[in-house]
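Box 4.2: Ligand-aware structure prediction
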Amino acid sequence: MIPSFTFFATAGTVENVGATPVFTDIDPKTLNLDPQHAGKLLGADQQLQEKAKAIIPVHLYGQPADMDAIMELARRFDLTVIEDAAQVLGAEYKSQKAGTIGHLGCFSFFPTKNLGAFGDGGLVVTNDDSLADRVRLLRVHGSRPKYHHHLVGTNSRLDALQAAILRAKLTHLNDWTGARQEHAAHYDERLSNVEGITLPHRSYDRTHIFHQYTIRVAGGCRDALQRFLKERGIGTEVYYPLPLHLQPCFRHLDYNEGSLPESERASREVLSLPIFPELLPQERGYIIKTIEEFFTESGI
Ligand SMILES: Cc1ncc(COP(=O)(O)O)c(C=O)c1O
């Protein structure tokens, strides 16, 4: 089971192992997997209960999902919890690092991530020795010793050059996270009076490392705001414009528009503003001023 509102890789990996993704809706406040919805789907479907093997909460934009409820659900329905921690490195849920709460946690070092390599890279963490052993095997074509293959894996080693770069950058991660949080606090303060947008929700029991600072723009104005900002030299991004249950490659799963309304609404409303440690206060001020201008000029 996975949330529909996430990057494609969360679902792609499910299909790639021969399983079928079951999409759940999201909590409209945090935009993370809604454990209540997942529980409802499981509770109402005996076949699904028998077949479901794993649940993959995604800690979207840098804020951990509701892990207590997800772990409880996993216990009840005997599911493995694989945390998609690609966007959450360093954030905490009730003082525990996100990615270390479930059975497995998967991190990404894609260049745009808070800790980005100069190419692709990633990391899997687990406290389970047998899972660790299996992941180590999978990463080198299932081979141990060399040229003796116990299972069919893939080539997924972190290459030494990327590891060296990440090691050097890692020493700066806390400072960079602090800078992102400071930018977010400024955005929060200055944008809280702008009618027409909803600021990122912060749950009191977890930290947010602001991989993205994502506002919601209701009333069908999101794309107009994005264009307005672009024309004034401000780049923004929509993560993600089409929820996974409506992607053409999943048509065979028989979801329709309206199946997962909160994921669909989020896809229409979200807009991620520039947030990176090096953002200058004057740049941040310009972004805020331009957003204010949009709402004043358009009279929304
Ligand atoms: C939520 C999420 N899951 C999975 C991935 C995949 O990570 P990678 O690109 O390192 O394979 C990404 C980012 O790319 C992501 O944002």
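In the box above, the bound molecule is pyridoxal-5'-phosphate. Residues 173-191 form the longest helix (19 residues).
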